[in-house]
Amino acid sequence: MAPSLARRLIALGSADPERAERFLAARELAGIDEEVLLAGLGVAPDPDTALVTLVRLLERDPRLRSTVEAGLARSESLFRLLGASEALGEFLVRRPEHLDVFDTVPSAEPRGASPAALRASLLRSVGADPAAKRPVAARTGTDAYEALRVRYRRHLCELAIRDLGAASPTDFLPTAAAELADLAAAALEAGLAVARAEAAATFGDEAVAAVALAVIGMGKCGARELNYISDVDVIYVVEGSGGAGESLDEAAVLKIGTALATGLSRAVSGMAREPALWQVDANLRPEGKDGPLVRTLESHLAYYARWAQSWEFQALLKARWIAGDGDLGHRYEEAVAPLVWASAGREGFVESVQAMRRRVTEHIPAAEADRQIKLGTGGLRDVEFTVQLLQLVHGRADDSLRVRDTTSAIAALAAGGYIGRAAAAEFDASYRRLRLLEHRIQLAHLRRTHLMPLKKDALRALARSVQGVMDTSKASPESLLDSWHRTKRSVRELHERIFYRPLLNSVANLSPEEAKLSPEAAQGRLAALGYRDPQGAMRHIEALTAGVSRRAALQRQLLPVLLDWLAQGVDPDAGLLAFRRVSETLGATHWYLGMLRDSAAAAERLCHVLANSRLIADLLEVSPESVAWLGHDRELAPVPLDVQWQEIQSKISRHEDATSRMRLIRLIRRREILRIAIADSAGLLDQDGVGHALADADQAAVLGALRVAEDQAASNGPLLTHVLVVAMGREGGREIGYGSDADVMYVHRPLPGADHDAAQRQAKEIVASLSGLLTQPLKPAVQAERVLQLDADLRPEGKAGPLVRSLESFAEYYRRWALVWEAQALLRARPMAGDDSLAADFMALIDTVRYPQELSAADVTEIRRIKARVEAERLPRGADPGRHVKLGRGGLSDVEWLVQVIQLEHAAENPELRTTSTLVALAAAERLGYVGEAEATLLAETWRLASRVRSANVVWSGRASDMLPSSRRDLEAVARWCGYAPGQATAFEQRYLQLTRRTRHVFEERFYAAG
């Protein structure tokens, strides 16, 4: 059964099918095949409006029937236009003589009309000669205004037909916008011709002919990206020229020029039988509404030189001669262009543009905020402000960016590497989609609006309109709004990422010569910035920027700023060399240079670490992909131990040979050390966090190595024993730095039924294999990398004792032979890897040793003797005791030994002291009253600073050292890593020496009073 007519009309998009049925039965449509009519209504964005207007047009001119009866092939453009624009339908009802506009079937890939043809057509409409230098209209008054506007709207209909019939409306959009601007320019030219004729009645033909008036298009008209209906922003420039013009004084020239500008505006938007086209807006002129309507070129330039604000230069970016005297107009363009492209160098320029965009958003009425296509969040202004800011900042040094229209500017920014290709493609597509929505909304009633409709019927018609020649039955208000919201989110995300890119401020502050990175400018600048080898630095720069590739273009864009950031480091020359090496490895990737361009945090962090850390620079050279972490703080968060261990187990399960398995384990550890060091340099980790994270990386590696060693042993026969690795010293306290070795002890326990001698031999094999596996060469090798050395010298009997003992052997030894220094060493013992049950039993065993019920006077004396011996024998020959951070006066050893004596004396009755952490134990000792509050604060500060110096030595030079540097350059590097500002090395040195002197005094009073 065939569906009813009402149902078919609803399916076609009719909002009022009953009314539509009545109009289909109108006598004007009698005899026309209903299927032909329904097919036409099916392509109309608003079939109800199209049907009503069609009936009215047939009433005015029945000859239109032949077009409708010919079927969709001939009438498609008719139905599309009538259903998309009620206003143009009304124009055709008023002017049925222009219905021949539908006689030509538009192409699916239409072209724009010639600007010259449009100008000639509109000039002829007012009876002016298009070939004249300064055309004068033969028609004046409302007769001329009406003729001009009718001809304009005729051309507007021709454009709308091509636009609505385009296979891809977004592809055609730049062409349509350009033609709209050209049509507006032609209307202004015709309006000026009318104004000349009218002004001649007042001032005389010769006087008017002697005054040159140039109309400068601004905004969208200047950029040739105008809307269907929009105010046309203009600036007027005037001068007297030739003949009678030479006898006119400036006041007369300005008076005539004002009359011409006023008459031009009246011709376009004054009262007449044919409605006004649009408003001619001259408020972007100097001084805005308060300034004179017309000025001479010299007056314009004087204003821009002295009084213009930053936003005015942003507006002048679009300035283009569009009507009137071409010579004067082009001279205006040439004169203001240098001012536009130098404006980004003005103080606070970038911030002022950003603030202006925020003000625009803040002033949107609350009721319109969610409907704004142009001004709202994620709207057209977000795209335009972003693109214009990038153009103005980078266009000083790059002429390719000096274009006016937005789509061409986006393409130029992408070609130059200022926006990533993907971001540029999304920006361009989003901009076209938003402009298309704006065009279609305005086309409906030819009213200046940028608001998304509220009514569902209007939304449905808009959805069908933006579909182009595709199947309009799939268009719906819901799909339209969903697409619009996605576009807004995309635009806003890109706007926030690019428009507020901190790199823009840095580029804007460069001189044009610096921004261009010319060899002459660079040589002097490098020396001034502090590069010790400017010629060598230039070789690196030339290697990075040579050629015409996108990679070279991005490097040229980044380096002027990066050179400055590198120069803020201690060794900018080494930093630039490291940057070159990293870039040569990663420059061809799709993300590296784009990340540095888009993330100032990443770029500045990279420069900071490369110029201040040999350790990080070397690690990045062999793991360059880690640069990706720099732009995201979350990527620099230390990976927890359990996650590292899970990753290690997963990776080694896929390999059989020990060498491959250990390589993976060591690569993971290397990666985590690099992550920790970068996070440390960025201030994302405190000192305790660094120690814990480094200890976790070591523990994960030892866990993996022990698994590999046990698997090797198992391959030669059954496992006979469990092995436990016990962390000692700073490793046990999780207080290690970048240069620390891992002090350990090895414990084993034979499995039930295993031969004890065989188990002991297997345990020794596992331990020997474990140590060797961790120190295998890792290729590519990194000189600055700390290989994990396991030091077992703190075991019972020291170097003379067996490397690994059974739990029973440890118990017997500690029961019969343990010395006080061994109890002291056990204070920091912590299970690191191995059997959990064995670990628990071992910890229970040593707790009775390291937390004695009583510390005898002899034990105290022995501790003091050993401390003095360590200071006398282990301090390097010739070393300044005041600068040795570990064994020197007031150094790490003093703080740690004092805290450990307090633990030995009081931990048995005070569980708070039972910790492997020096600082945690010190804090507990202060709470318990064993040290004063001021003393504890001093000891903790000194310990932290000394620990930081040890790590800073490794980070800066790649080599471990326990000495506070004497070299000024090394001291400067260490001071910065310790949190001091550039140039504060001496203050840092004095602070360290002062703290350690005071700490030594506290140590001597407390340590030698112990017991």
From TrEMBL:
Annotated Glutamate-ammonia ligase adenylyltransferase repeated domain residues: 76-334, 604-842
Entry's EC annotation: 2.7.7.42, 2.7.7.89
**Entries under InterPro entries matching the protein:** GlnE, GlnE_rpt_dom, NT_sf, PII_UdlTrfase/GS_AdlTrfase
Q: Which residues form the PII-uridylyltransferase/Glutamine-synthetase adenylyltransferase domain?
A: 355-499, 866-1005
Keywords in alphabetical order? ATP-binding, Magnesium, Multifunctional enzyme, Nucleotide-binding, Nucleotidyltransferase, Transferase
**Which positions carry the signal peptide feature in this UniProt record?**
none
Under Gene Ontology molecular function, one entry of this record is: [glutamate-ammonia-ligase] adenylyltransferase activity
Q: Which domain of life is it from?
A: Bacteria
CDD domains documented for this protein: NT_GlnE_GlnD_like (cd05401)
Name the NCBIfam families on file: PRK14109.1
Q: Which PANTHER family match?
A: BIFUNCTIONAL GLUTAMINE SYNTHETASE ADENYLYLTRANSFERASE_ADENYLYL-REMOVING ENZYME, GLUTAMINE SYNTHETASE ADENYLYLTRANSFERASE
> What is the recorded name of this protein?
Bifunctional [glutamine synthetase] adenylyltransferase/[glutamine synthetase]-adenylyl-L-tyrosine phosphorylase
